[in-house]
Amino acid sequence: MAIEIHKPNVAILISGRGSNMEALIKASKEPDYPAKISIVISDKDDAKGLVIAKRHNIKTIIILKEKYNSRIDYDQALSETLSKENIQYICAAGFMRILSEEFIDKWWNKIINIHPSLLPSYKGLNTHQRVLKDKMKVTGCTVHIVRKELDNGPIIIQFEVPVKSDDTEKILSKRVLKMEHKIYPYALMLLSSKKINLDNDIVKYEDKESLDNFLTSI
Fold first, then answer.
1. Which end of the chain, N or C, is less packed with Cβ atoms under 10 Å?
2. CATH classification number, 114-218, choose in 3.40.50.170, 3.30.365.10, 3.30.160.20, 3.40.30.10
3. Cβ 138 vs Cβ 118: under 8 Å
4. 126 torsion bin: left (phi>0), alpha (psi -120 to 50), beta (else)
5. Strand order in the sheet with 111-115
């Protein structure tokens, strides 16, 4: 009789198309992946990612911001939902809301986010537009543990992406997004399998060589 291995439950927060969400779901279907995508939560009822999640037989919940008087009220409802679903880790994947300090404190070191730049450079929106305007030669993407400041927190993994002379925002965005789909599932794997730990808010790796090999392979 096979022994069932417990995998921590993961929630994905989305607001839109959910391409990173789908990358996480697909990775989680591998037998040896150490986490289970249990639920997808959207703050918009027309988010395209909801359709994709249902196609993968993932439970979906919509929590509309219009139903709450404040960000704290919204985040409290979100937190209660996550607790009811026995969630251990949270992945923000294009979730267009700034989480409150109270929410982050409750889920401390349990929330990760992906951002389309080499943080701490180019925090916020319109990242690719700003990169091109500044004539940067290199950009990239970053997965980090969420902290109270926007696009800030201990970095789990980054990947550099070249900026080409004829790039447009759309072309550059696609090139970066392709790498996002690779590093986000790997970052969740590291976190959920406890292959990383924090030392003064700096990520330390159980097996740095494996990480280096992964980055080289992509």
1. N
2. 3.40.50.170
3. yes
4. left
5. 59-62, 36-42, 9-14, 89-92, 111-115, 138-145, 155-162
Catalytic residues: 115
pLDDT value at 4 more than 70:
no
Give the DSSP H or E segment for 60: strand 59-62
Collapsing DSSP states into helix, strand and coil, what is residue 55? helix
| 6-108 and 114-218 in the same fold | yes
- What are the structure tokens assigned to 86, written together? 């026995």
What class, spelled out in words, does domain 6-108 have in CATH? Answer: alpha beta
Q: What is the pTM of this model?
A: 0.95
Q: Where are the domains of the chain?
A: 6-108, 114-218
Q: pLDDT tens digits for 93-115?
A: 999 999 999 999 999 999 999 99
Residue 150: count of CB within 10 angstroms of its CB:
14
